[in-house]
Write a structure and sequence with these properties.
The protein is elongated. The N and C termini lie far apart (58 Å). The protein is mostly helical. It has one domain.
């Protein structure tokens, strides 16, 4: 049973379009999260190193120094964990939306509704991606509030 070469070519084209749409999400996420990453990587990391530097006091024993440094790392570790958790939830929601699109496509194939099945799937995926991208500012606002990041640089 030879697969239909036209259908295979159409699937490759749609697959490439879908890959580009997923790349859009990655770019949008990086753009939206840049201010938060900047805060974590510079403001919190800088505070951590200043705090940790102060831990190295000859009046402290090794355990005291280690405990002090560990306490200094709490804000950075907490912030990274918070960002990772939010982004994992974001990814999970998007994956569920994309799975619904895939399920609709598979159901159309089972029902042998060939016409428009690929276009419907592409449209469904596009909507899921756009919905996900539109959620990013809300996620960023929640993270900013949790991390007490004031808007700066006119953002």
């Amino acid at each position: 049973m030879n697969p239909n070469p036209i259908a295979a070519a159409e699937e490759r084209i749609v697959s490439e379009r879908l890959r580009r749409k997923l790349n859009e999400v990655n770019v949008a996420a990086q753009n939206h999260l840049s201010e938060i990453q900047d805060h974590v990587n510079f403001t919190l990391q800088q505070a951590y190193f200043k705090c940790a530097y102060e831990c190295f006091d000859r009046r402290r024993n090794q355990e005291g120094i280690s405990n002090c440094v560990e306490n200094c790392s709490v804000p950075v570790v907490s912030a990274n964990t918070m960002v990772e958790n939010e982004m994992a939830k974001f990814q999970e929601r998007m994956n569920r939306s994309l799975m619904v699109c895939q399920d609709k496509f598979e159901a159309a194939k089972l029902k042998q509704i060939k016409t428009g099945a690929m276009a419907d799937m592409e449209s469904c995926v596009d909507q899921a991606i756009q919905d996900s991208i539109q959620m990013l500012p809300h996620i960023v606002d929640r993270l900013k509030a949790s991390l007490s990041i004031n808007n700066y640089n006119g953002k």
